[in-house]
Design brief:
Four copies of one chain form a homotetramer. The first copy, chain A, is α/β, with parallel strands linked by helices. Chain A has 17 helices and 23 strands. In chain A, the strands form six sheets. Chain A has a seven-stranded mixed beta sheet, sandwiched between helices. The first copy, chain A, has a six-stranded mixed beta sheet with strand order 10-9-8-11-12-22, sandwiched between helices. A three-stranded mixed beta sheet of chain A has the order 1-5-4, with helices on one face. In chain A, helix 9 links the parallel strand 11 and strand 12. In chain A, helix 2 crosses helix 7 and helix 4 runs parallel beside helix 6. Chain A is globular, with a radius of gyration of 25 Å. Chain A starts with 7 loop residues before the first strand and ends in a 7-residue tail after the last helix. The C terminus of chain A is likely disordered. Chains A and B meet through strand 6, strand 7, helix 9, strand 20 and helix 16 of A and strand 6, strand 7, helix 9, strand 20 and helix 16 of B. Strand 20 of chain C pairs parallel with strand 23 of chain D.
Chain lengths: 501, 501, 501, 501
């Protein structure tokens, strides 16, 4: 039996699918508005079982040479590449994102596996000869034990792949709690890992809700928690995990601004903003949701160009690759997004393109909101202060780059941002002084590549080490420093090793 | 006015000594059992004042080239070397440690300044050419803003020096809350920093108690907290700082074991244990407080040798360099240490040398406990389960190295440990499998040198990045990742820069 | 057509096999003593053709994002794993090494490909913010252009794989001149690279002799030379390549000593020495060819144990995996090895096991020398002073480790060495003070893993950067340092980007 | 006796000044055209003596803990800062450079000492746990032994400081052969090193000519050569040093171009070019000697602005800080520079400002050439193809940035270059594709800071590792890789360390 054969989505523990009788929840196809699949929600016993299996697997995995651990990742990459289409379909059915978008997500995930294949390099400790006379000292980066990842619905494959490949090559065992809205991708990845030769118990998936999360947060065998989700939950996760003495990195919400300077090429800007704002229905923590135009002329021109292009965008089912983006994840979320649009309207924003009441033919029950463009947004509007997480682009008008930067620096979040310009000095000034962790210059979605690390500032990230890349190596290991002296005076002076005569 | 001229110990804020009228507390000379000095305990207004000054100083300090920031540290090192004796005296009067011991503490502290002088190397970001076609990406490690250090009584100079030199060269402003029992060293360091050219407001000292600490923990301008102290407070600090969204590293208690294998040279072992166990009255988080002897023969011999040597040890006033160690920090602490000795005796331990009721001539009111050796300790005794933090060495007897390691791995703490052996395999087996962060092989106090990082495992450290060394650079900075593309197609193909004709 | 279909071994240039009419040389099967295949020897025109193709391919390959270049290596690794058996057979036919030995060689080679997959990490430059006020500086490691590798007969696959995967992922084009005695493996690797998606012209193989080598050494488009072979040729290569202004790393000969201390476990020692001394007929630059026994008792016991084991060893054809090792590479080389044995005998060595006149049944014309053990070697013997490069193990007897180390330090070569002991101090003393680049402690063939670098000292390596591993990244790139300032005073103070009003 | 007391400039060997009777040569004050001092030219015996002392000093220095070696550099920095003015005077008298210029030189040199103080960080080896089961491997970077530096007249303090601080903290002994035209600075540095606590024999200075150089190049105890000078000598040094099996880095000549794009701010450009072209009389390997103006309008404007400013420049004696630059180093060199000006004139260049026949009042016999500006230079002129190394700025006019870059890429040298622009894309295109090692964007003298490395491409540098910075650490050490296994099976399974019963 495998993930392909069933509508009951269980857990993956100790190298096997597991479907204990327990509470269930419907998994919707958001384009259809209905759900045939059901996901099991782990109770505490099930989570405990996963932890126990990981605990048993850990000592052998920890002592497996890193090059051997890495070989599993090389193979996993190959298998994942061979199964990309199937995984796209799984993601599309539960999340609704168009296939080409899911393909991009998986590709990004694979790059994290590729980086994990650098583990022999990344895990090198530092060796110092003669820290004192005849004393050497060195560091080793040893795995923590069992670490857990709690991941969001919007990247069912990529965000887990940010975490577990590196955690695992570092020698840890991993327990993944994916979103209960999009659980299947994680299980399929688990299957491929086993095929790639990963010993059982090293990687486990438990589906569930707050019960499972809280059990993980409090369990004394869980050494570290990686989380990606909304800021309110991230804050709870960080506070709770650390209260129980764990290390924790918790990535939260965002409000990502693009600043458009007068010297920018507005055709390029408009084109690149479309994908950045509306791709994946804006359900990305790096989605570009606010444009700050410097000068009314820039704003007017840009709005005009964007309006034309936005009205051409197509929404619909994931499997039709002519669609530009799909539905939102749930009815509740659709309502929330529409609430923000309406609220902005009431507060004085100008709705240039209105995506409310979007009902693609044949998918009238889907959770769709169309691409929405709102001009004349001001920072005191409710819809500006919160992350909308939908296909909504807001325009703010200012007079100078300094004004634009002040608005950004005043926002609660500091995840990503982008500046459009041709000017080297503007770029350097902006990237130096903006209080945001990931900065694009003419790059609207400045997601760091897999060999750098992902992390925002302010309320966008709690913790000190960022997701994936070099930071994740340090996060998933603890340092051990050995100081060594060999002492018998006899040896050197008196030739202890000479033969007795 | 400076630190040398007064018995009222105030604060150092914005480049000046400050003595607002506020609550005071006596600072004892623990060898005399009396105190002439008084330390001011900051209220919230005073802490706020320090934070405000730091906040004003930050933008200019952040943008000062790193090489210039580093030059301040070069000069600070020089000044500190020139003033070592005075600083020793300050420490001796308040802490009681013998001058040669204080000298060692300062020397270790200076090595942290030296490492901070490597900042131009340590702060290098990672630059990747062509992460995509014509797209470059790089990381910058920018200072956090204002960070705070809360430090213990036992190393009035060294532990602050673990923290602020690196925090400051990274471009941060720093607020130090030293122990109210030994506050003067910090103020003297502040003075030297100003002499070395540090702009005012970059480094500030506030003396105080839990009121000051809590104010720092909750203030939204404080970005990070470094703490060294007991585990109960460390746990509180970590939980509270993280609850307020800050990054935090909190170092707590320890119970450091030495394992003596049958092949060890017992004369060397005995000699090296003396300083490790009794130096600074055992008031060190790396003090060697338990010896696990493998085999009764080893235990018997070692106890005999230790007894002879321990009975020769001298305790007394810090200024007499013939003394081996000084008093404990306070009357309360002396009573607690004596309680643990008495309790162990009641629970069946054998008191080989008894340090209770030690009253050096002329210092009968001092808080002294003499060197104490206890044999036949078992892991279930109360005095074993807790950190005694006094001049008490406990002996446990086992049959094998595995048994010894199991005892260590079962303890709550995992700070330091040491193995005595000549055998390469034993050393490697021990250092690999022991659940302790700092491991010595024939080195009883395996404190990592300044260019490595200090940190224990389990309840000895909360957080993911360790104190000083490479880890501290990452702790005191946040990563910013820039992704940059320059885009006008005109430039390359159409020679935008050629002259119009 | 491909490498599998012909007995004429040509070149691989610009993605294609090429067989220009030119001089030829027989490629022997050394176990049979005859050769059915012929290898073409490139004239200058052919080498020029390869260089020209590489020159054309370079600009596009250089500008291909490193992650894309790396993907070719991921695929190449997979293809090579799928074709290991065929490659073993190719190597066996021309070199004579037993299949399991060839398998090991390829496995080591694959590990170099795996390390090359870390290129995105390894190629990161260093970014420094504010080296002066508003001035940033960073380094980029750009490819050199065309680089060449000249490789020996004894590792037809592994030594090329030390070089070209890293050179290529760094963005260079590569010309390989393999040994004309074992040319086929290189051509097969070229085929697989093309299958893996490498653009044509990036990797080229030219077969040939000194004519080809000299042409490469003198050509101004060749930027760097990597060489592995004998010291006399290495010296010539280094002198000539540098004379023409190129960078060069030239690895030469070796005489690798094992020192056996009295505390070593002699059964283990004897077992591990067998493979180290006789594996691949001793035709390895890391072959363990001298044992220095500390104490006559050790020597006597070891010789006795070795004699018993050596007499059980089997030599023969590569395809019979019961054989322990195969023939030497040529008739001339067999004669040279036998000359050294005879010479040693004349100079007073004791021949414990004599491998001369070995004629395995059915392979009487093969170039075999059996495993040979010589005791009582002294450093002034001719056979000691030179690298024999055959299945000959020499025993030297000394009284102390210091004496042993002096002998090693006096030898011309400093490639590899090994100490057998249980003693931590001896290991540290030996590894610190021995004048040898690669040191084993209880590891007789201390070939560094692929993520470290390979290189000997003294006459074993000319150049400053070693083969493969981290050093090779620096060798195959040149550093470019950019210092950048953006300067218009207008921008910040006068808000150049605000709209004109 | 010290450097201050004599007009006979000898050697510094084994911690002492040495003045053996030998050949002498006059050291000129180039502003006066006469010389009171004489420098001794070492014969082979003197060089041999220096090498022997270094050889004796090496073993102890090598084994001195790196932190102790570094402390010497901290002290040396302090002493040098305290003696900057005296050193300026020494340099001024022999080289002629104006005091503020000498001050800058020394400051740059001190930054190299500061970087050498990072040695504990820089010398860390790489430690890999479990490269195989129970096998660890790590690298150590050990000093080479004795290394030599051969330095040019134009930076009597800075270029030696590029080399020996790092070589020495790495554990090497150093022999410096400074230019015989400006020898005193090196001797003064030697004195300060001794005062800073450097053991005798670790640093030695021999003055001399080709005899001394050749003796160093051929001596088998010299492990590495660092050279800075002209390309013809650099090429000879590289060829000869490598022929004798040494590692070598040899930095040669330059022709550094600035490209001025139409969007550049020409006032800024003109101002910054003055110092870059004429500072230190253009006797810098990073001097900006060619401006390529894109567009005639740019050229015309720039020439006009430059002419005005150049005519204000003052030349004269080093001690008058109102002077902008001083004399050339020698009569011969003055004649050569004037030859190139005359030759350019003959070949059709336009002499805008003519510095020939410059005779400052009171210094009529000095070797002065005034600032010279030549327009309408073409790449085929002799004066363009060679490095003039004088206060001569040449203007080339082109139509596009591509044309400008082609001219630069066609030149023999590839040391430094600069682009003036405001455009981010132009900057990135230029820095990516220009075949030059050190690139400035709006920075006319892009000398890398001390924590990066200095090196040009093409004929500007021979070797693979650059001067100072991270590269120099690798250059001055050889890698040793240890692979270690501890083996007795007894230990783990059979509890070898349990007590016999």
């Amino acid at each position: 039996m495998n993930i392909k054969d069933t509508n009951i989505i269980g857990h993956y523990i100790n190298g096997e699918f597991l479907e204990p009788s327990s509470e269930m929840q419907t998994v919707y196809n958001p384009a259809l508005g209905i759900g045939k699949k059901k996901v099991l929600l782990a109770d505490e016993n099930t989570v405990e079982q996963a932890i126990r299996c990981a605990h048993v697997a850990f000592p052998i995995w920890r002592d497996t040479p890193v090059a051997k651990r890495t070989k599993v990742m090389f193979k996993f990459k190959q298998l994942l590449e061979e199964n990309m289409e199937y995984l796209c379909e799984l993601i599309g059915q539960e999340h609704g994102k168009i296939s080409h978008d899911a393909m991009g997500e998986i590709q990004r995930g694979i790059e994290n596996i590729e980086y994990a294949c650098s583990a022999p390099e990344l895990l090198k400790g530092e060796f110092s000869k003669n820290v004192g006379t005849n004393i050497d000292s060195w560091s080793e980066f040893q795995p923590l034990g069992i670490v857990a990842g709690i991941t969001p619905f919007n990247f069912p494959a990529m965000v887990p792949l940010w975490m577990f490949p590196m955690a695992i090559v570092c020698g840890n065992c991993f327990i993944l709690k994916p979103s209960e809205k999009t659980p299947s991708a994680a299980l399929f990845l688990a299957e491929l890992l086993t095929q790639a030769g990963l010993p059982k118990g090293v990687f486990n998936v438990v589906n569930g809700n707050k019960i499972a999360v809280d059990y993980l947060l409090q369990h004394n065998l869980i050494q570290a928690i990686s989380f990606v989700g909304s800021t309110s939950i991230a804050s709870y996760i960080y506070e709770t995990a650390t209260k129980f003495g764990k290390r924790c990195q918790a990535l939260g919400g965002a409000k990502n601004h693009a600043v458009v300077l007068p010297d920018a090429d507005l055709d390029n800007v408009a084109n690149s903003l479309l994908g950045a704002a509306f791709g994946s229905s804006g359900e990305r923590c790096m989605a570009l949701s606010v444009v700050i135009a410097v000068g009314d002329h820039i704003a007017d021109t840009l709005v005009k160009k964007l309006k034309i292009e936005i009205e051409k965008l197509k929404v619909g089912i994931h499997s039709n690759t002519h669609n530009d983006f799909g539905p939102l994840i749930s009815k509740e979320h659709k309502e929330k997004v529409e609430y923000y649009i309406t609220k902005a309207e009431e507060e004085g924003a100008e709705i240039v393109v209105d995506g409310r009441d979007t009902k693609p033919l044949g998918y009238e029950n889907g959770f769709f909101v169309g691409a929405t463009l709102m001009d004349k947004i001001s920072p005191n509007m409710e819809s500006y202060q919160h992350e909308i997480f939908g296909p909504v682009l807001q325009i703010i008008r200012v007079e100078s780059i300094q004004q634009a930067m002040q608005i950004i620096n005043n926002h609660t979040y500091g995840n990503g941002t982008c500046l459009y310009t041709k000017d080297g000095e503007a770029a350097r000034y902006f990237s130096t002084h903006i209080q945001v962790g990931m900065v694009g210059i003419n790059v609207p979605l400045p997601v760091p590549v897999a060999y750098h690390s992902f992390g925002g500032w302010k309320k966008s990230l709690f913790g000190d080490l960022y997701a994936y890349g070099p930071d994740s190596v340090r996060f998933y290991t603890h340092r051990k420093t050995i100081t060594q002296r060999w002492v018998s005076k006899n040896f050197i002076e008196e030739k202890q090793f000479s033969m007795p005569t």
